[in-house]
Amino acid sequence: PQGSEEAKAFVSAFLKRSMPKKKDEAIQDMLTRKAVVLEHYSKKKTKQKRKKTKGFTAKQRRDMRLFEIEPNQQRYAIFLPLHELWKQYIRDLCHGLKPDAQPHMVQGKLLKADLHGAIVTVTKSKCPSYVGITGIILQEFKHVFKIITKEDKLKVVPKLNNVFSLETDGFISYIYGSKFQLRASERSAKKFKLKGTIDL
């Protein structure tokens, strides 16, 4: 065991190493106290800034033609499995589409549902050439539907001034395009109000 003198010398040397900025008088003054507080220099941690991943702008998406369907892919048969998936999605959304289902409940669900894959028919239009167009909705934009017909033709049908019919398990619903001019993502969050009369 070390003697008291050796212990004092060790403590004094230790304090000098630990507190190089302190003078000998200050260290001796601290030794007379019961508690000794040693200085601690903590390393400042530099926070790494997270870089936000920037998506493509609308112009870049158009230039890259991300949403264009290639001519060799414009075939009705290719998208029939998509329609089957859509039918199952609507059945799950409307809890089975049972015969005793309330029409207004089903209609309310369809208003907010995703229509990609649905088979629609233009039943009324201010432009007679659109009436009778039937096909699977491939893309829904704010103002138009892109529909692939059984003749493998891609039709761009405006929502404005058109009425579309939608049949699901015997339940026929009508979409008034003039009141439907929203993007699919916006439509899912919108609250639709019941109106007395609806015109083209």
Automatic annotation (TrEMBL):
Lineage, top ranks: Eukaryota, Metazoa, Chordata, Craniata, Vertebrata
Protein name: Ribonuclease P protein subunit p29
Family, per entry: Belongs to the eukaryotic/archaeal RNase P protein component 1 family.
Keywords: Nucleus, Phosphoprotein, tRNA processing
Self-association state and partner proteins as the record states: Component of nuclear RNase P and RNase MRP ribonucleoproteins. RNase P consists of a catalytic RNA moiety and 10 different protein chains; POP1, POP4, POP5, POP7, RPP14, RPP21, RPP25, RPP30, RPP38 and RPP40. Within the RNase P complex, POP1, POP7 and RPP25 form the 'finger' subcomplex, POP5, RPP14, RPP40 and homodimeric RPP30 form the 'palm' subcomplex, and RPP21, POP4 and RPP38 form the 'wrist' subcomplex. All subunits of the RNase P complex interact with the catalytic RNA. Several subunits of RNase P are also part of the RNase MRP complex.
Signal sequence extent: none
Native source species: Podilymbus podiceps
Main subcellular localisation: nucleus
Known role: Component of ribonuclease P, a ribonucleoprotein complex that generates mature tRNA molecules by cleaving their 5'-ends.
Listed Pfam families: RNase_P-MRP_p29 (PF01868)
Biological processes, Gene Ontology terms: rRNA processing; tRNA 5'-leader removal
GO molecular function, one term: ribonuclease P RNA binding
Cited InterPro entries: RNase_P/MRP_Rpp29-subunit, RNase_P/MRP_Rpp29_sf, Rof/RNase_P-like, Rpp29/RNP1
Listed GO CC annotations: nucleolus; ribonuclease MRP complex; ribonuclease P complex
Subcellular localization(s) per the UniProt record: Nucleus, Nucleolus
